[in-house]
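Reopening this one. Same input as before:
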Amino acid sequence: MAGTILCCVNGSAHARRAVELAVEMAKGLGHSLTFLFVNQTRPASGYPPIKAAAEDEAREILDIAIRYAHAHGVREARPALVEARDVAAAILHFAAEAQADHIVVGTGNPPFIGRLLLGSVSEAVVAGAACSVTVAR
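Same output, byte for byte:
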């Protein structure tokens, strides 16, 4: 039975590397592939939450990943777009709901103080995932 790989995208260089790795894995293993964009939201004092990216920008990033997957031989690739305040929690929740067998995330090299204040999405995903995780650089 074919499995499912979940690849998290956000348009960054590290996310592009994650796309490349996820496509290689999906093709080699015969797994389906889901690209997930978590549009982070922030509260706005009585107004609708502020989104990190415009929806059309998020969809374009997902479309690019899907086209890349198709161009490299992965036929079962689909996009997913969710909104959440906590990106790592949203990834873990989506992975559980989708019964992902593997998660691929990119990671940057944030300054130490940034990691202390904000935490690292990739670290939180690795720590909380119920399946294997590959971290791309």
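So the earlier flakiness isn't reproducible anymore. For the record, Residues 113-118 have pLDDT under 50 and may be disordered.
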